Amino acid sequence: MNTKYKFSSIALLAAALTFSSCEKALEVTPKQSVDIATALNSRENVNAAIIGVYSRFKSARVYGRDMIAFPEALADNGRYTNKSGRLANEARNLHGAHFSNWQNYYYAINDINLALEAIPQLNVIPAVTDAEKDNWEGQLYFMRALSYFDLVRMYAYDPGTGSVVGANDKGGVPLVTTGVKTLGDAVLRLPARASVSDVYKQIYADLKAAEAKLGNLGTSPATANKQAAQALLARAALYNKDYATAKEYADKVITTSGARLLTASGYVNGWRNRINQESLFEVTFTINAENIGVNESLQTSFTTLVVSGNRSQTGGFGDLVPTNTLLADLGITVASNGNNAASITARTTDVRNQLYELGTTGRGVPYVETTKYFGKNGSINLDNVPLIRISEMFLIRAEAMSTVGSPVFDETAARLDLIKIKENRYSDYAGSTRATADLALTGAALRNEILRQRRIEFAFEGHRFFDLKRLGMDLVKSPHYSNVPFTDYRILPSIPTREIDGNPNLVNNSGY
Length: 512
Hints:
This protein is mainly alpha-helical.
């Protein structure tokens, strides 16, 4: 049995060398091996390979759904409606109901490694310019860093005191920075889990390389750019509890792109446009052939609505809806008739709650649903997915400066960042009692309000589970489900059985 799994795993990894999302551009023979000289021997093929890596992030197992929906379901933001049965197990934190995208990311990493190795050897006429080379490599370094960051925050504990359960700690994830070219190469490549520290060192190195090579963000955040690399490094440093670096890189992004922060009057329209003005980097879905469809798209996962305010037309299933505690933080008051049907009876002046509406009755009793993903790209279930927005930089910086023991501890500056966010999210903030109260926040109250604003700001954007996990916090699921202590093995997912059986050096997480 082990031999079978081992061959299967290696064969699948080698198959990634065909850059499946751009097969027509990269015909390779034989299929189980790749000669880089023929597979990546032109500008067109290098560009196709890079596009292929971006396409891997569009998978439903990655940012097409799971990396956005699962962090809401696994944590305390989302509850399932059972209108299709999807996301029910994740919301209840059942054994094995967790992230399962190891293969997707390692395929992407191998594609990236092969491209990085091929670029310096590219012999074409006219010759590759330094600008071309920097742009290609910068994008690839950014995407490798994103891949390793996602892998380590899913499959391992986060660094720092209070964020690790020692008895369950099995280390980070395997680090592979050279390409696997043949099945023979793969047989010899059976890496163990690297330390979390070493994984973060690689993430930092890749993002600093990307920062040095990429140009500034232009009109579209669809591809990696300097500000996206800086912002991802700020985020990674926050997870790494490296608060000085988190602030340093948030500072850089705010200096060049802080004006992208939308005001209260423009916030809702930002989410109705195809590209969100606040985005520093988005996973883009440009043609209907990329449409994930009515079963698993973000639109169908989160809402039954097709058009804002029109409850007579039903589209998706609305599988995951806000919990009672999230609705309270959003400032939404609902009335229930005891059968889960609700009406919104009041809202605060927080404009973010305008992206939550009562769904249709077309799939059963209605719930309050989020409409952040609304078929903005011209078709139902087709949406660009903002992965990094400028508002995150203000909240990263505020958290870094409000954390006791941080080398950049500065409550006055942290309050200013908190107030900046709230000025741009509450329509009546200036001169309000809320503003007066915020000016007096210090200590734990200040930090807790910053974390509360993170919850509100990024609800249904794939942050909540990871925020609770990196802070070593329990998953408080009541009143909907049983709470999950941070010490529970279910905080981490299982590494796929195929990978464990095929690699004697790879140790699974506890409980599986």
